[in-house]
Structure to design on (271 residues):
């Protein structure tokens, strides 16, 4: 089944019968992805008195109590509430629906151009996604892009169960990269990295602040308006999925939190 969608005066034929899931599932009984060395996500049958949330234990149906941290265990979508005191929740944003998206693949760089802006916590061994990389990848795209999807190299299924901690500094986005994204008026960023910021940056989260227009070191909105932009981290885009234009449904869970588990689905555009 196809659908026709208009963006910027152009019409696109979208194959809605061929969804591509780019989320990472949580497996409670197998090896899990983990960011920051937090305890594993858990699920266990509810028990209270004679009530059993397990058919194996005599209950009439199965229902579990779960414990998880969206930021650390799975694909999640976050809003500006992630870095400010005000109670701003991801379910306050109208995110579910089809949006224009562009997938690019980049290999983070360890050697940066002298003009590249980056975190003061940057070390020479760090690998970074740069502004020039993004510009080279999408600079000539003549289309209003709502969502930028960034796949990093090397890319393998190891990302499904990767352990990210202080012993392994994963790549992150330079300030110049975030500035380019904002210059292109891209509202939503999806990445297979655990964070757009350096894992150890003194808690500054410089890229997040820049993306959401919150002054560095500030933890309140102040006079700033609530940014409509979101960041989706810990996606996985398999190698057979080609770079280029898609439409995406972010599919974010309806939870009162700064971030919630999400299941982004890509839909191919028919040439």
């Amino acid at each position: 089944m196809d659908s026709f969608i208009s963006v910027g005066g152009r019409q696109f034929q979208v194959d809605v019968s061929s969804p591509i899931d780019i989320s990472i599932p949580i497996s409670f009984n197998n090896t899990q992805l983990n960011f920051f060395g937090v305890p594993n996500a858990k699920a266990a049958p509810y028990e209270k008195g004679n009530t059993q949330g397990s058919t194996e234990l005599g209950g009439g149906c199965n229902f579990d109590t779960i414990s998880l941290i969206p930021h650390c265990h799975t694909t999640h979508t976050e809003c500006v509430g992630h870095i400010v005191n005000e109670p701003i929740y991801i379910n306050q944003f109208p995110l579910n629906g089809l949006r224009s998206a562009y997938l690019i693949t980049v290999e983070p760089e360890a050697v940066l151009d002298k003009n590249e802006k980056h975190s003061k916590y940057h070390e020479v061994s760090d690998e970074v996604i740069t502004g020039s990389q993004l510009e080279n990848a999408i600079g000539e795209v003549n289309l209003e892009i709502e969502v930028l999807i960034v796949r990093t190299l090397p890319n393998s299924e190891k990302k499904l169960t990767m352990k990210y901690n202080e012993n392994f500094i994963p790549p992150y986005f330079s300030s110049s990269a975030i500035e380019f994204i904002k210059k292109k008026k891209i509202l939503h960023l999806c990445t297979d990295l655990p964070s757009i910021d350096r894992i150890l940056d003194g808690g500054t989260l410089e890229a997040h602040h820049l993306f959401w227009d919150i002054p560095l070191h500030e933890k309140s909105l102040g006079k700033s308006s609530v940014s409509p932009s979101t960041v989706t981290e810990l996606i996985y885009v398999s190698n057979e999925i080609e770079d280029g234009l898609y439409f995406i449904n972010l599919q974010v869970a309806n939870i009162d939190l700064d971030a919630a588990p999400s299941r982004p689905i890509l839909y191919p555009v028919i040439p």
